[in-house]
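WARN retry 2 of 3 for item q-0093 after timeout on previous attempt; input resubmitted unchanged.
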Amino acid sequence: MISTKGRYAIRLMIDLAEQNSTTPVPLDSIATRQDISKKYLESIVKLLVNGKLVKGASGKHGGYSLIRKPEEYTVLEILKLTEGSMATVACLEEGAEECPRIDKCKTVSMWRGYDDLVNAYFSKITIKDLL
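OK item q-0093 returned
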C-alpha cells in the first residue's frame, strides 16, 4: 500500500506543476490548496529536495519549484523516493539478503511479476499526465 507521504508527495508535485510559475511557490499556499498541514508538507518537501526533484528558495519570496518539466517526472520515481521501496515482499527489496528458501519458494515468481506490473504502470504515468 502506498503511504500518505507518497500520495501527498504526488499531490505536491502536481500543485507545483499547476502553478507553472517562474517564482517559487510558498509551501503554506500549497498546504492551503491541498488541505494538508504545512508541517507534514515540510517533511515531504525535504525528501523531494534531497532527491533533487524540487528546489527551494528561502527569504521573503521563498518557496519551492520543479527542477524539470512535469512530463519528465514519473510517479514511480516520486514513490520510490518517498516510500523507500516499492517491493511487495522484503526478500525482493533492493539490497536485501538473498532468502535461503528462494530456490524452494512457490510464490517468489508471483511477487516478482506483481512488482514488475506495478513498476511498469507507475513508470508510464508522469506529473503532466495527472494535470
